[in-house]
Design a protein that fits this description.
Elements lengths: L3 E7 L6 H8 L5 E6 L6 H7 L3 E4 L5 H11 L6 E4 L4 E3 L1 H10 L7 E12 L2 E3 L7 E8 L3 E3 L8 E3 L2 E12 L4 H24 L7 H4 L4 H12 L6 H15 L6 H30 L5 H12 L4
Helix pairs in contact: 5-9, 5-10, 8-9, 9-10
Length: about 300
């Protein structure tokens, strides 16, 4: 049997954490929860279900997860990244237990298919399934990209794809969804302007190391084409491509809400924030001045 450690980041996830932990119990040899000083029952629930819980101050997802990789007493052969609102479905749990021990020695990572559940409905269209992400890797052969948004796991070696999916199923309401994506938009805008002005080192891991080919292709299209278009045109074009060209309209009323919010409103909001922040930093002379002003505007410790 191949041993596998699961890492989950949390902050006030009492609604989800038990579900996530129970879903990995059939195959995980170690489970670590890295908590950012939750004020609800997240830590209590996690410990009651056998997870090892450590606390660390939050900067961003990338740095929090990498802190875990660098500091946790991980003894397992393999590591899995799982969000607190994600669930490993029974078919995938069986596939992991059966296939992981027999993978060839040159396989450094495993890509998994993520399906998104929104307002109780599986969003199957609009390019949303399958989202193929590297989520399992051999200990010592993977790391998380150093980015403010859209960070991926990159590995040194070959990756393979498992067939059964896992679910991204957040149980919070639309207010939480829009609030979360507002924060995402701020972080993504900081990444865009950081690359535009060279404000912090760019992590080229997705280009130079192995990961999901789908994720690499999407990153290339976003950075080389999408981000160079006027954002009102880009956001509308992206929504129409998803909703019409990729048949997002087949996802019903829930799909309409999701594709409008995530495929249009969010993309438009990112572009608007890039414009807003850029107006404040573009005339500043030094890199240090630009970075300091962007940090003030975004509230991020850049």
């Amino acid at each position: 049997m191949a041993s596998l450690a699961v890492l989950i980041l949390t902050y006030n996830e009492e609604l989800h954490i038990a579900r996530a932990l129970k879903s990995v119990a059939p195959f995980a040899s170690q489970v670590f929860v890295i908590d950012c000083f939750s004020t609800d029952k997240t830590v209590e629930i996690a410990r009651s279900l056998g997870a090892t819980v450590l606390s660390n101050p939050w900067i961003n997802y990338s740095k929090q997860f990498q802190w875990g990789l660098d500091n946790l007493p991980i003894a397992a052969d393999w590591i899995m990244r799982l969000d607190a609102d994600e669930v490993i479905e029974p078919e995938l749990a069986v596939e992991i237990a059966e296939k992981l021990p027999s993978l060839a020695a040159d396989v450094a990572g495993v890509n998994l298919k993520r399906k998104h559940i929104f307002l109780g409905r599986w969003i199957r269209h609009g390019g949303r399934y399958p989202l193929i992400l590297t989520r399992i890797w051999r200990r010592g052969q993977g790391r998380v990209e150093d980015r403010w948004m859209d960070e991926h796991i990159v590995v040194r070696g070959r990756t393979v794809l498992f067939n059964a999916p896992f679910s991204d199923h957040n149980l919070n309401d639309l207010g939480f969804f829009t609030g979360k994506h507002n924060g995402y938009a701020t972080r993504e805008a900081a990444d865009v302007l950081g690359r535009r002005y060279g404000l912090f080192p760019e992590d080229l891991g997705l280009w130079r190391e192995a990961s999901s080919q789908q994720a690499t292709t999407k990153r290339r299209i976003k950075e080389r084409i999408y981000n160079r278009l006027p954002f009102p045109v880009a956001a509308l074009g992206f929504f129409l491509f998803r909703y019409v060209g990729q048949l997002g309209f087949l996802d019903g009323r829930e799909g309409l809400i999701y594709h409008v919010l995530q495929g249009y409103w969010y993309r438009f909001l990112v572009g608007a924030k890039v414009l807003e922040f850029d107006r404040s930093i573009r005339l500043l002379v030094t890199t240090e001045e630009k970075r300091a002003e962007l940090a003030r505007l975004t509230g991020l410790p850049l």
